[in-house]
Design goal:
- The protein is α+β, with helices and mostly antiparallel strands and 573 residues long.
- It is built from 19 helices and 14 strands.
- The longest helix is centred in the first third of the chain and has 41 residues.
- It is elongated.
Length: 573
């Protein structure tokens, strides 16, 4: 009996010792982390982090928070899946430098990583200061951009607009917008909530800027030259609070749909390459990265060319934690968030190309830049027709398209509707010139608004694969122009104007891009490449005029504008 009692006491003591050791093992890592955190804080280790927390603190608190959520809601990843190990050392699409992507394998390397982040922040700050100085000098000095827009070629007027020429009837169609958005009210520009009034009870000026942009679309342009709405909309894109985020379905690369407090929406393309990186020479055009800065630059180039066929685009620096991860209801997107070995927040989403841990998008530690393109009107309200580009590439590693092997291909296109009449073929030539200046080979389809039939402009969407190579001019992009030898007179004269020394396309682009929050958008070699390519376009047109005659090549679309423009432009050649 006594032996039995001693045995029970022994078992109890062993149990107590085991429990004590288990508790100590659990507490020891936390005590070490707390000691390390206090030592780093006293040592001034902020490390250039632009957010309110230290780089290591937020990921740990996020993991704990999501681990508790996982217990309450099935289907969310557990805490062990939140920290995936990967090597970022050779990835071109990370937002970090190659030094700051080194794997941290020892605790003693943390100080080195902090210094690297500081250096990255200092370099970024230097670029910002340079852009700021350039912007200040542009304001103080003479503005080439202002002088360009005061030129008579940028003052031509549209024909009188009828109800058939506007995308929306302000007194009828516009009342359906709140229903289409699933909301009966919006926040106005002062972020004051007010009930929506049907058209006729409130002026158009009281609508949000995204809606005013939609109202202004007509048969001839996405927006007018001097409307203040576009400037206000660009400011909204970088300042409006993001209320929800979801992945855009379809497409080869990751794109996010972002909704704002005023119920506007925009398409977000995250940064995948630094500004200095060129497309690798062995990349096919259909597997190239989509660049956020190319989307921004394309909008400004389109406006300088006076096409006004690209929806407004602005660059924005986002906090991945607060403005993407915490507001998304897309579980597929949320599950792809993780913390990198460098303690940076990363995600990769779902898409056909480049959506994996090897091609993750990482912040510094959770800041990421990207482009935000304003949405066009909902398809339920304004249907768009998708057209196959006649000069579409084969999108095959070995096959060639018909236009690449048939020099008389344009003759066949000219006999095919809608290219056999109207301005559609000339609009294709405008798009060709636009793409060549950017180096964009990825123009497989284009869209038009269905309401306007065939007598309307082409919308220049998806320009992310432009500005990939500044050291190479892809002449195959110009094949439509060399085969057809047709161009609008307005386009021809503006190209000659932009080639003049007093304007110069590269200088105009540089000045225009300084208005963006993420300036500088393009490095100098890309700006200089546009001047070089502009001269090549004018050379092709000059050869066409010499071969076929001016009247056969240049189509007069200026509706009786003074012919002095023509002589003035010729004098600058």
């Amino acid at each position: 009996m006594i032996l039995f009692r001693k045995f029970r006491v022994l078992i109890l003591m062993v149990f107590l010792v085991a429990c004590t050791m288990h508790i100590m093992i659990d507490l020891l890592p936390k005590l070490e982390k707390r000691a390390a955190g206090s030592s780093s804080s006293t040592g001034g280790g902020g490390g250039g982090c632009s957010c309110a927390h230290t780089p290591g603190e937020e990921p740990r608190s996020w993991a704990k928070q999501r681990a508790r959520a996982a217990a309450a809601e099935p289907g969310w990843p557990n805490k062990h899946s939140l920290r995936l190990l990967q090597d970022f050392s050779n990835e071109p699409n990370s937002n970090l430098t190659s030094h700051s992507r080194e794997k941290v394998t020892e605790r003693g390397e943390s100080g080195k990583r902090v210094r690297q982040l500081q250096l990255g922040s200092e370099k970024r700050g230097l670029m910002r200061d340079t852009a700021s100085g350039q912007k200040q000098r542009a304001v103080q000095g003479s503005s080439r951009l202002k002088a360009l827009y005061e030129n008579p070629l940028y003052g031509t007027e549209l024909p009188h607009l009828t109800e058939d020429d506007t995308l929306f009837n302000l007194n009828a169609d516009i009342r359906f917008y709140p229903k289409a958005a699933g909301q009966q009210e919006w926040h106005n520009e002062g972020n004051v909530e007010e009930e929506y009034s049907p058209a006729g009870e409130a002026s158009a000026e009281s609508y949000p800027n995204w809606l005013r942009f939609h109202i202004g679309i007509n048969r001839y342009e996405l927006y007018s030259r001097h409307t203040p709405v576009i400037g206000a909309l660009l400011k909204d894109l970088v300042s409006q609070r993001i209320t929800s985020v979801a992945m855009k379905s379809g497409g080869t690369q990751l794109k996010l749909i972002m909704s704002f407090q005023n119920y506007g929406q925009a398409l977000f393309k995250p940064m995948k390459q630094t500004r200095e990186q060129e497309t690798p020479p062995d990349f096919f055009y259909f597997s190239d990265f989509e660049r956020h800065n190319a989307e921004i630059a394309a909008f400004h180039l389109d406006r300088i060319l006076d096409f006004r066929r690209v929806p407004p685009v602005a660059g924005r620096l986002l906090n991945m934690t607060r403005e993407i991860r915490d507001v998304t209801r897309d579980k597929k997107l949320w599950r792809t968030f993780f913390v990198s070995p460098a303690n940076n927040i990363c995600f990769y989403g779902e898409c056909s190309y480049y959506c994996s841990t090897e091609h993750a998008l990482c912040g510094k530690p959770d800041q990421i830049e990207g482009s935000l393109a304003a949405f066009l009107p909902d398809l339920a309200l304004a249907k768009r027709k998708t057209w196959r580009n006649p000069w579409r590439r084969s999108y095959h590693k070995r096959k060639k398209a018909e236009w690449e092997v048939d020099p008389d291909y344009c003759d066949e296109v000219k006999q095919t509707p809608p290219y056999d009449q109207g301005t559609r073929l000339l609009d294709i030539m405008d798009m060709t010139i636009f793409d060549f200046l950017m180096g964009n080979m990825d123009r497989h389809h284009y869209e038009t608004f269905e309401k306007f039939g065939n007598e309307t402009f082409i919308i220049h969407l998806d320009n992310g694969r432009g500005f990939g190579k500044h050291s190479h001019d892809e002449m195959s992009i110009l094949v439509p122009l060399t085969q057809c030898c047709r161009v609008k007179r307005s386009t021809y004269l503006r190209l000659q104007l932009l080639a003049k020394e007093e304007f110069q396309l590269s200088s105009l682009m540089e000045e225009s891009l300084l208005q963006d929050q993420l300036a500088p958008i393009l490095i100098q070699p890309h700006l200089e490449a546009m001047d070089r390519r502009l001269r090549l376009v004018l050379k092709v047109l000059a050869d066409c005029v010499e071969k076929e005659g001016f009247s056969s090549v240049v189509e007069n679309d200026l509706n009786g504008q003074p012919s002095s423009h023509h002589h003035q432009a010729h004098g600058g050649r």
